[in-house]
Amino acid sequence: MTQLKKIIENAAPKRLFNIFLTIWMVINFVQAIFTEITDDEAYYASLYGAQLAWGYFDHPPMVALITFLSDFFSFGNLSVRLFTIILQVCTIHFLWKLIDEHAPCVNKVVLFFTIAASMIMFTAYGFITAPDAPLLFFATLFLYGYRRFLKQESWTNTLLLAVSMTGMIYSKYHAFIIIGLVLLSNLKLLKSYRAWLAVVATAAMLVPHILWQTEMDFVTFKYHLIGRSFGFHWNEFLGHLPNQLVVFNPLAIGAVAYIVVKYRPRNLFERALYFQIIGFQIFFFLMTFKGYVQPHWTAPTTMAMIILLYRHSLTNEKILRFVKRWVAPTILLVLVARVLLVTELLPERVRFHGKERTNKAIEVAAGDLPVVFTGSFQRPSAYRYFTKNEGFVLSAVTSRITQFDIMQRELDYHGKSVFIRDDREGVARQYNINGVMFTGYITHNLQTVNRLQIDYELAVAGADSNDTLTVEIEITNPCAFDVDFNHPEFPVRVRAFYAIKRKTFFSECELNEPIAVLRSGETVKRRLQTTVPALEAGKYQFTLTLDNTICAAVNSFYSLIAINKNDR
User: Fold this and answer.
1) Which end of the chain is more exposed for a tag (fewer CB within 10 A), N or C?
2) In terms of DSSP bridges, do strands 462-463 and 559-563 run parallel, antiparallel, or are they unpaired?
3) Mean of the per-residue pLDDT values for the chain?
């Protein structure tokens, strides 16, 4: 009878856990079905998942794989989100195993789900597909493997570490921070040959991605390490902490901060959790000095926060009372927000609704023609997703390079008819289709210059406003077609571009000899002169761009130039 009683007592919390997990999954299914696909999801689905590769411009390939598999097994919104939902169920499963409960009870199950449901970004990645969704799963698996490895350095646990580290890195490069912080929390791992074997196995499994990066001249790393750097900006610096409060839930993160400050880690595993929480915050706080930091980049610390808050709630009545009185009620706010996402009550600029209607209207104007967008990569991604028609962006120096630049779809439409979604003065017309207003125009002879290359040497490191810069340049046309610099619709001019802290400026350039036509495979040398615009003193990113009236293309590398004074 005693044994039977124990079985019944243990079965109750297990049954409740499974019930809660099922409810969680059902809510995410409903949310995924009725919440409109986001721009980024459209980008991953229509460009990544539709063309599997070992790497992509912005991210490693795991998000492409889960969108591909979702599309293979499902339809509608679930064709993008199915495996995201499945991954979070698995994440919660391993997170519960990480709690290491030897005596589970109903109250503990309720406490666990209460804390997990209060973490805003964690719940979001249960139905929105992004690289962070598989990252959270593999990071949880990594922590689970690491805890097992601390208890026993077996071959099974070594393999578990290798698989989880590989999965993390194939999900998002933030994995290197996670791994590095665990290592810093326990430097004795450097003496473990099985830990080194896990690293070697991980490196071996990453070879295909490394080869892809090598072939692409490490384009992803250059973008993340250099391309996103625009210098210190007060808005980014001051906004970092408020953004973190919103991402995690200000009350929950406040309780975790109290725990981290008040209590010391009790073992090596908890020490790793502390390092994750503190290390991520310090790392990305320092990153605000060099550029923009997206709030969700610290999301991988969610698991560490949930574990610590749960464990200390069991042993500290004060923390448990705080969770019940203050953290738990915020779940209602999270649920209200999730309900709003499936309605049209939120402003359309939030872009959780209205995209399908807008893109269907553009499709009516474009007909069977491919649509050329300028500016953000999200717009053509949404167009491709909602219409299943061709759409691409011409990246500009005022926007950024994306996967579209690797695909180079515009080369297939040189000299052909396309619809350009733009407001080019004197050419674009105003459309009003089913209440959707936008501008655009049709051209029957597209000419783009985004693949032309400019090589230059900036002879000076600094200049004053209104100074004249003389620059020796080489312009190369690697395309299979000639480029007409005097094209009747898309004439080409060289311009100088300056950027500082997201502020951008142009100045016109004068060549010592005009270019009429740049033949396929031809390189021409010219000397140009350009007057530095009236700029505030500071260090600016400088480059030369070819402007064909659609956009000022990214044709060259960036240099730093110091503007010493403003002569206005």
Assistant:
1) N
2) parallel
3) 92
Token readout for 490 is 């898309």
Distance CA 340, CA 348 (A): 12
- Between CA 462 and CA 479 the distance in angstroms is 34
What would the 3-class secondary structure string for 67-106 be?
A: HHHHHHHCCCCHHHHHHHHHHHHHHHHHHHHHCCCCCCCH
| Chain Cα centroid distance, residue 83 | 18
Q: What is the pLDDT of residues 9-31, one digit of tens each?
A: 566 888 899 999 999 999 999 99
pLDDT digits (tens, 9 = 90+) for 516-527: 999 999 999 999
- What is the bridge-based pairing of β-strands 468-476 and 453-457? antiparallel
CA distance 269 to 148: 10
Tell me how far apart the alpha carbons of residues 279 and 149 are, in angstroms, rounded to a whole number: 22
Q: What integer is the mean pLDDT of 352-361?
A: 93
320 lies in the same domain as 369: no
Q: Is pLDDT at 548 greater than 60 in this prediction? A: yes
Cα(23)–Cα(89) distance, integer angstroms: 11
Domain contains 377: yes
Residue 501 zone, left/alpha/beta (φ > 0; ψ -120 to 50; rest): left
Instruction: List Cα–Cα distances, 389 to 286, 367, 381, 472, in angstroms.
Output: 42, 10, 10, 42
Sign of CA dihedral 377, 379, 382, 386: negative
Query: What CATH number is attached to the domain comprising 467?
Result: 2.60.120.570
Residue whose C-alpha is closest to residue 24's, from 96, 80, 75:
96
State the pLDDT confidence band at 375, using cuts at 50, 70 and 90.
confident
Co-location of 144 and 58 in the same domain: yes
Q: Which domain holds residue 492?
A: 453-563
116 exposure class (CB count in 10 Å sphere: 0-12, 13-18, 19+)? buried
Q: Report whether pLDDT(8) > 50.
A: no
Q: Is residue 346 in some structural domain? A: no
**83-116 pLDDT, tens per residue?**
999 999 999 999 999 986 666 788 899 999 999 9
CA distance 476 to 304: 52
pLDDT at res. 504: 92
Last-in-domain residue among 280, 312, 341: 341
pTM value surpassing 0.85? yes
Are residues 10 and 142 located together in one domain of the fold? Answer: yes
Q: How far apart are CA 111 and CA 299, in angstroms?
A: 21
- Number of folded domains that form the chain: 3
Out of 341, 364, 384, pick the residue that ends a domain: 341
* Residue 345 pLDDT class (50, 70, 90 cuts): confident
Residue whose pair of structure tokens reads 């500016």 in the numeric block: 375
